Design the sequence.
């Protein structure tokens, strides 16, 4: 009877009840009649399906309702038949139930459905199980006999039927298995059924759901019985079950591992079935159903079985094939299985289990090494754990000289390194760290050393080329006495390389030896060698030694690979770049054959023409197929990140993306590039450019990151998003060849396009920046070229400093963008790492970002300028940052008020100092500022006077010291100006006038506060000049020329600063007794040591600083009791201590006189001080002397009189009058005329080195020759003027003091320009003339050798000057009297060295003097 029989019986009984009134008097009579009927017409096994419940006959009002249940009928039938057969009813019920199950299971016509029931079978079985449940409740069913009968079935039941018995509590699977007689048959049946079940997983949804439930229930039962911890005890009656469970799981694992081994041979359906079985290893399905210890035991056992499965591969196979066992190349079934197993363990437990297996079992090296790869990719902590394991293995190896531990360590190190520097250190670095120094494991004894090289030698026959190169290029440390051991190994390794057809001669100059991948082709290595050589050349401006050596000793590689890689045709830039300069240097050094160079130039021109024809074809040859694969994998990653339940799959997916990215990037990514991490990356920030193919890849990755961030943030805040984004960025950084393009693209987006980015882009880039800093160890230093006008202190930057330089705050737009970016970055940081300490956060965010917020937020918001209230605890939620209507000014203020952000500001690394604030403020262009002029003044007042001036120095303030604040401002203005392109000499065009005004206010306030100091000698140095001179100390700017240019520009800026400050600042007042004195000592010292060296006239300062000093002097004299006397004292001291100041006044007197007269009259209304009046008189006398023939010079210092006459002559030049005027001079004019000659020589030198200053060379020379003639006519001795104060006469020391250092060094040029005025009688009259001439000739030659301070060739060709001097000396030496040679002994040696011919001439003509007694010293004083 079919399953619908119950319904027929019910309808029959119900229909009869409705048609006529029952003839049975009681229920018992009705039951007996029914039993007789069923016994005649119904089989007992079919009766078990009758489970439809009771029948209630309808009756009329007041008639009694009678019930008849099918359960009671079945029980009665069973009992009646059982009594007839003489067996217990429960046994009979069990047998009949098994019979019915067998019928249900056999009714399927499709053998493919063997593990599952169809819908009809499922319904019939459901009816049967309900009946059996009722029989159990009535104790009319024997489970033990039922289990026994199951195993007697001709065909064992369908697995789903067994599961229904287990699930419905009829009989548990464990009890069923325990009752089996043939355990092996049961294992076979269960495992084959489970395999078939997994194959049905891809069927209809209902089947898939059933398969999942069946597997999970069976897996729980297997673990509960097969891996029950011993301390929990086992069920005594279950003796066979644990073994069967173990055996079945083992068979299934073998099925999986067999499929892994034959992945390429298996059909897709089998692989899908195996993958479905892996769901058994999901920890989540066990939850509380399985004891945690059981789960750990099962997973540990599984991992052990995997690692030791089929250990047929030899170590030699592992050495050769391990590249194929990296994470992305390993069968996905195996990596998925590993990842599921690792969920049950910590990373440390996983590595420890791996270590135990390696120590106690024979292993399958493919599975072991793929396990290592999976661990380092998917477990962030695995890197350090493997480093510790490797160290442990090496220690054990050298303790016991155990080869097994050695090979294990090498294989693990190489395998981990295969996954890239993002997850593990390169093999070359590990090898160097382990064996590269005397303290390494092998350095303890010769035995250990020999053991290491025996091991390495045994590896050689199986090694691949890259590892041999590592061992050759970075050999283990070997003491000198044992070098033969190393050389033997190197010879063996080179032989192996030759066998592999890898010529050691083709190894690159800077070959990356960190990779275990196949050896890079010479073309690819040559390209990398060129890149490295260019970096070295840019830093040193010299051809690298390695390139020169290669051109000589490795000629085949140099000519066949290196030069073609260097001379790849390209479109040459308009201005020569580093590559062009490098090629030019090689060409000039004859390191590039002419024909090859010509071919290169022609190819570059052809490339340019082609580009002009069709620029759109650039990069068209780039393969699109790998990029499409990369896009697909990035899309898959976005799906995983959006589903929190799948986050554990993210590391594996990122590894796949890394592999796809390597395919897109080509050979550069196919090598592990960590060995070149020390090579700097060049980024031209002003004009960043990258290849179109690289830009498309970088854009794809950045877009993916932003999309992933938004997808992850849709469901969770950053702190609950896991390490997905961090791993993604770390993976990108692991591709060394992509980093330059990435940084250049970021430069384009942030530095050039920042203000135009929308909020989503800014948020994504800000988060990307945080994770990029998190991976900063993978990013080399950056050489950033910002152009000449960009204020960047250092060219070589870390990634944090690079970000800081990209975020400028100079205009309203850039300030707004910087606010948005920094707010997003810091907010993401605080949301992402809420539990991190401030110290930990310092490593994750560039301090400059936090500092920029400290600068910007108070600048834009008055509310932020107050002290944050403890009660004001604003909260900036992540959701508000991702809101489309975000107001960043409000968001930044909200962030500012956060208690956690304020705590961050207390960290020293994040504190914005006064100096840093000033540098940021100086960058702002006032005309483009977001603040109005009045708002900016208010901000400056608050920042300087209310915030930084009173703040302690520990937090970047000034400790209330106004002098310190002034010093900081001056220092910042100078630093900032040094970084800018100066519009003209010393003009600070870009410096904020507001800051300069604040400096002037503060200096003035400082001057008003300071009382005259008592005791000038005890007074401390003037703070202003102390600051300026301190900046000039210990400055090193590379080349001597660079130092000279820096110093010159620095002094120009100093001068501009001094002129911009109140004039009285230059003068210090002090008390001596009851008298107030004016002290200019510091100013004079500064002028003599520094300021005079930027004077183009050589003996006079520019008008601006000269007038400023004199105005300050007159103003400062107000503090003196006798103002005129104070001015006179200063000017009197000035004549000897700083004559250049007075000479400057002389030069500028026509402009200076009215200014000083007007000021003095305004201040005092009295006659000018005596010294100033004397200057007026001298100027008037000089004018009168030239025009009307008045007596000259007047009484007074000859130096001043000569200066006035010289300047008057230069200003009122009238041909012929000067000569007549010189003749009219009095007799006592020696000092006057020599001084006049000195000034004319200074102008002659100025005309030669600075022709644009308005001084003509010929005019100056003629004037000097006229003065020289006058001196000769009067018989006045003058040659000692050309010797320095130490060598010459002290009476000329004041003149030398007034000259700049450069003019003094060029006196030899001036001397030999006067040769037309040297007459023969001069040689005989001045017996020390030869000494002076030789001394100056030697100085002239030294100037030429050093190449410094020489005049412009168009004004005075150095070779021509030297030739003139040489010819003069060669003609003069024979004419000199013998006594002239008596004092040249000290000069003879230097002369012979620099000019042998002149030296020989001197030697020849000085011999007679040797017999003379000329021991007397040259009387110079």
Sequence:
């Amino acid at each position: 009877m079919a399953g619908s029989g119950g319904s027929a019986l019910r309808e029959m009984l119900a229909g009869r009840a409705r048609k006529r009134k029952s003839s049975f008097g009681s229920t018992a009579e009705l039951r007996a009649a029914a039993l007789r009927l069923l016994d005649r017409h119904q089989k007992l096994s079919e009766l078990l399906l009758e489970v439809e419940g009771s029948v209630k006959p309808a009756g009329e009002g007041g008639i009694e309702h009678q019930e008849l249940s099918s359960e009671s009928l079945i029980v009665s039938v069973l009992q009646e038949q059982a009594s007839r057969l003489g067996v217990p009813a429960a046994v009979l019920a069990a047998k009949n139930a098994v019979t019915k199950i067998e019928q249900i299971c056999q009714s399927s016509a499709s053998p493919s459905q063997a593990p599952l029931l169809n819908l009809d079978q499922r319904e019939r079985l459901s009816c049967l199980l309900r009946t059996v449940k009722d029989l159990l409740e009535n104790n009319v069913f024997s489970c033990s006999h039922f289990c026994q009968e199951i195993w007697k079935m001709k065909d064992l039941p369908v697995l789903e039927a067994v599961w229904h018995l287990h699930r419905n509590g009829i009989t548990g699977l464990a009890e069923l298995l325990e009752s089996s007689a043939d355990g092996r048959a049961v294992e076979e049946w269960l495992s084959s059924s489970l395999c078939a079940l997994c194959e049905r997983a891809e069927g209809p949804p209902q089947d898939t759901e059933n398969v999942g439930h069946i597997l999970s229930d069976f897996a729980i039962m297997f673990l509960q019985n097969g891996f029950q911890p011993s301390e929990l005890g086992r069920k005594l009656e279950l003796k066979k079950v644990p073994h069967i469970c173990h055996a079945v799981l083992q068979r299934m694992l073998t099925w999986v591992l067999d499929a892994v081994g034959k992945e390429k041979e298996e059909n897709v359906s089998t692989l899908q079935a195996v993958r479905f079985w892996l769901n058994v290893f999901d920890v989540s399905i066990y939850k509380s159903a399985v004891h945690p210890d059981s789960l750990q035991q099962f997973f540990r056992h599984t991992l052990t079985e995997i690692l030791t499965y089929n250990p047929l591969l030899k170590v030699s196979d592992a050495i050769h094939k391990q590249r194929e066992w990296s994470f992305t190349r390993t069968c996905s079934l195996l990596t998925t299985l590993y990842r599921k197993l690792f969920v049950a363990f910590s990373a440390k437990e996983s590595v420890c289990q791996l270590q135990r297996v390696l120590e106690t079992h024979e292993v399958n090296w493919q599975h072991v090494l793929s396990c290592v790869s999976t661990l380092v990719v998917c477990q962030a902590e695995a890197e350090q754990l493997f480093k510790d394991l490797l160290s442990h293995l090496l220690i054990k190896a050298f303790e016991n000289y155990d080869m097994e531990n050695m090979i294990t360590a090498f294989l693990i190190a190489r395998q981990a390194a295969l996954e890239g520097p993002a997850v593990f250190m390169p093999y070359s670095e590990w090898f160097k760290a382990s064996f590269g120094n005397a303290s390494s494991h092998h350095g303890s004894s010769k035995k250990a050393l020999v053991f290491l090289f025996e091991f390495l030698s045994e590896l050689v026959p199986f090694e691949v080329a890259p590892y041999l190169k590592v061992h050759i290029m970075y050999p283990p440390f070997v003491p000198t006495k044992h070098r033969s051991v190393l050389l033997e190994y190197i010879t063996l390794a080179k032989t192996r390389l030759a066998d592999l057809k890898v010529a050691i001669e083709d190894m690159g100059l800077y070959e990356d030896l960190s990779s275990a991948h196949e050896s890079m082709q010479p073309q690819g290595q040559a390209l990398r060698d060129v890149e490295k050589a260019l970096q070295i050349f840019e830093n040193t401006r010299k051809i690298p030694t390695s390139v020169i050596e290669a051109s000589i000793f490795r000629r085949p590689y140099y000519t066949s690979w290196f030069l073609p890689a260097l001379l790849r045709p390209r479109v040459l830039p308009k201005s020569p770049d580093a590559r062009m300069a490098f090629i030019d240097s090689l060409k000039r050094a004859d390191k590039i054959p002419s024909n090859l160079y010509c071919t290169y130039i022609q190819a570059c021109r052809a490339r340019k023409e082609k580009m002009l024809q069709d620029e759109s074809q650039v990069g068209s040859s780039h393969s699109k197929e790998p990029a499409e694969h990369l896009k697909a994998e990035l899309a898959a990653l976005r799906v995983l990140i959006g589903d929190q339940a799948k986050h554990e799959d993210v590391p594996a997916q990122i590894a796949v993306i890394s592999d796809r990215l390597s395919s897109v990037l080509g050979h550069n990514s196919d090598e592990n590039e960590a060995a070149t991490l020390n090579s700097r990356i060049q980024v031209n920030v002003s004009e960043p450019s990258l290849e179109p193919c690289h830009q498309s890849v970088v854009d794809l990755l950045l877009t993916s990151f932003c999309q992933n961030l938004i997808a992850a943030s849709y469901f969770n805040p950053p702190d609950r998003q896991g390490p997905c984004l961090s791993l993604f960025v770390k993976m990108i950084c692991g591709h060394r060849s992509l980093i330059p393009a990435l940084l250049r693209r970021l430069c384009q987006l942030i530095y050039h396009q920042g203000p135009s980015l929308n909020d989503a882009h800014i948020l994504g880039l800000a988060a990307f920046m945080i994770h990029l800093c998190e991976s900063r160890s993978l990013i080399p230093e950056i050489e950033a070229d910002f152009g000449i006008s960009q204020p960047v202190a250092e060219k070589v930057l870390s990634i944090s400093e690079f970000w800081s330089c990209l975020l400028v705050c100079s205009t309203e737009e850039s300030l707004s963008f910087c606010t948005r970016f920094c707010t997003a970055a810091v907010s993401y940081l605080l949301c992402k790492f809420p539990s991190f300490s401030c110290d930990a956060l310092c490593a994750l965010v560039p301090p400059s970002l936090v500092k920029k917020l400290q600068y910007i937020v108070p600048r834009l918001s008055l509310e932020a300028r107050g002290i944050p209230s403890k009660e004001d605890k604003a909260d900036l939620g992540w959701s508000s940052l991702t809101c489309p209507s975000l107001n960043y000014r409000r968001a930044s203020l909200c962030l500012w008020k956060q208690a956690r952000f304020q705590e961050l500001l207390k960290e020293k690394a994040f504190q914005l100092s006064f100096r840093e604030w000033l540098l940021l403020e100086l960058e702002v262009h006032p005309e483009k500022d977001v603040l109005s002029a009045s708002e900016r003044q208010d901000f400056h007042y608050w920042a300087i006077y209310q915030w930084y001036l009173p703040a302690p120095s520990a937090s970047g303030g000034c400790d209330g010291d106004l002098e310190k604040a002034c010093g900081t401002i001056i220092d910042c203005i100078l630093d900032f100006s040094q970084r800018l392109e100066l519009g003209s000499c010393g003009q600070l065009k870009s410096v904020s006038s507001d800051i300069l005004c604040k400096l002037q206010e503060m200096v003035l306030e400082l001057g008003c506060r300071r009382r005259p100091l008592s005791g000038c000698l005890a007074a401390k140095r003037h703070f202003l000049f102390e600051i300026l001179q301190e900046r000039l100390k210990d400055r090193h700017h590379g080349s001597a020329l660079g130092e000279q240019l820096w110093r010159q520009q620095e002094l120009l800026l100093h001068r501009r600063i001094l002129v911009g400050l109140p004039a009285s600042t230059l003068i210090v007042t002090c008390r001596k007794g009851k008298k107030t004195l004016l002290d200019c000592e510091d100013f004079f010292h500064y002028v003599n040591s520094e300021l005079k060296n930027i004077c183009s006239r050589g003996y006079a300062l520019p008008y601006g600083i000269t007038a400023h000093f004199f105005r300050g002097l007159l103003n400062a004299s107000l503090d003196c009791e006798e103002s005129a006397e104070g001015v006179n004292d200063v000017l009197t001291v000035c004549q000897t201590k700083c004559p250049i100041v007075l000479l400057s006044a002389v030069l500028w007197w026509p402009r200076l006189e009215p200014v000083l007269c007007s000021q003095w009259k305004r201040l005092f209304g009295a006659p000018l001080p005596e010294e100033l009046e004397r200057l007026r008189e001298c100027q008037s006398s000089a004018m009168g002397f030239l025009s009307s023939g008045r007596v000259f010079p007047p009484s007074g210092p000859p130096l001043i009189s000569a200066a006035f006459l010289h300047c008057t002559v230069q200003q009122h030049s009238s041909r012929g009058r000067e000569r007549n005027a010189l003749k009219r001079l009095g007799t006592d004019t020696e000092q006057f005329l020599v001084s006049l000659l000195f000034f004319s020589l200074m102008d002659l030198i100025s005309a030669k080195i600075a022709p644009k200053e308005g001084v003509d060379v010929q005019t100056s020379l003629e004037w000097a020759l006229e003065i020289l003639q006058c001196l000769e006519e009067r018989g006045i001795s003058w040659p000692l003027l050309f010797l320095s104060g130490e060598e010459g006469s002290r009476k000329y020391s004041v003149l030398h003091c007034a000259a700049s250092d450069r003019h003094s060094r060029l006196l030899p040029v001036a001397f030999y320009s006067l040769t037309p005025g040297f007459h023969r009688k001069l040689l005989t009259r001045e017996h020390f003339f030869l000494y002076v001439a030789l001394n100056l000739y030697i100085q002239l030659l030294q100037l030429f050798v050093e190449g410094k301070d020489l005049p412009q060739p168009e004004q005075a060709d150095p070779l021509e000057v030297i030739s003139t001097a040489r010819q003069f000396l060669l003609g003069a030496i024979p004419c000199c009297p013998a006594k002239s040679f008596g004092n040249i002994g000290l000069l003879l040696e230097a002369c012979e060295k620099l000019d042998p011919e002149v030296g020989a001439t001197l030697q020849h003509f000085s011999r007679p003097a040797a017999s003379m007694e000329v021991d007397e010293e040259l009387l110079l004083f």
Q: What stands out?
A: The mean pLDDT is 81. Strands lie at 54-55, 68-69, 681-684, 782-785, 796-797, 1013-1014, 1068-1072, 1075-1079. The first helix runs from residue 5 to 19. Residues 807 and 818 are 6 Å apart (CA to CA).
